Amino acid sequence: MKKILLLGGSAQQIVAIKTAQKYGFYTVLCDYLPDNPGQYEADKFYLVSTTDKDAVLKVALDEKVDGILAYASDPAAPTAAYVAEKMGLPTNPYQSVETLCNKDKFRVFLKENGFNTPVAMGYSDKNVDTSIFSLPVIVKPVDSSGSKGATVLRDWNDLDKALDFAFSFSRSHRVIVEEFIEKKHEYLIGGDIFVNDGKVVLWGLLNCHRDNTVNPLVPVGKSYPLLLDKDDEDSVHTTLQSMVDKLGLKFGSVNVELVVDKNNRVWPIDVGPRAGGNMIPDLLGLIFDVDVVEMAVLAAMGEPLKCEIGAGTPFYATHNLHTNKNGIYKGIEFSEELEKRIIKKCLYKKEGDKVEFFDNAAKALGIIFMKFDNQEDMSSILGSINEHYKVVVE
User: Fold this and answer.
1) Residue 243, CB half-sphere, CA atoms under 13 Å: how many?
2) Does residue 146 surpass a pLDDT of 70?
3) In the list 62, 112, 188, 254, which could disulfide-bond 208, CB 3.0-4.6 Å?
């Protein structure tokens, strides 16, 4: 029986374990949290940090695994590539994965390879040279995702506070300051692409929604189809395929965020070598009639993929349920208009649980999936979605 090593056993990563088992693979799991739910699904569990490359390598060698996958995890992605390279298993280049998982290295890569990139500089202390930047800028950790620790700065008087916030979320105690690019379109371009044999076979590009009443940097949902001019969408495709080529990426999901400015230039903002969080693969499965998790598992095991991607069915969306206050969770009340458009609910909290103000993606209370009849209906509901549900908090 072939073995697969999976890095990370959170609730959202269990789907990768179950998918691997569906294909008859023996599943070995590493996670540093003793209470991770994935350990009860995997065939074998090791209490090992997914960022400890040598410890994970030892597990992989001892178990004689045939493939390794860090599903939907930025911190574990370099470990997976490192171990796979050491063992000669299917992988993307370790150096490329490292580049994508480190924001200041990524900015250097963009600049050296002719991609549009804002003025940016990484720092391990608070000695920021403000003279090289034009406001607004964004301050964020070099090694976090989900907008954790990020601040858009429009006044240098707030720099110290923004740096403290960013450092508090950085594992390597390093932050990046970069000029903030203003987009010409309403929504940030987000979502996942999937690479097979070095070519993008799934263009899962989505509108990335925000909630300015809590944190305008934190994603609160996705919608499809992408609201972007055809010429701009073609430019985004060209940019991403060129990036895949220059990085030498062979396979797997790639989570992307980009903007197009008023001069029609494409700016890659964040690109991660893994599936997106907030159940993006589930949403893409509904839209394109494809199992992205299955594709990721099979690619990691060196198995052939069935890349029969659907044309894309409109009008689907997700929303990350959240609250603007701290307290004890009592429940969620949905309006009748919203309820009839919901096709699936994934609730993370139960009555009596502690909930917090939504300032990063990890504080979501759950996700709802919606299907609409047309673009007008979708825009109307999503544009006022906070009025269509109430989180009861005491």
Assistant:
1) 33
2) no
3) 188
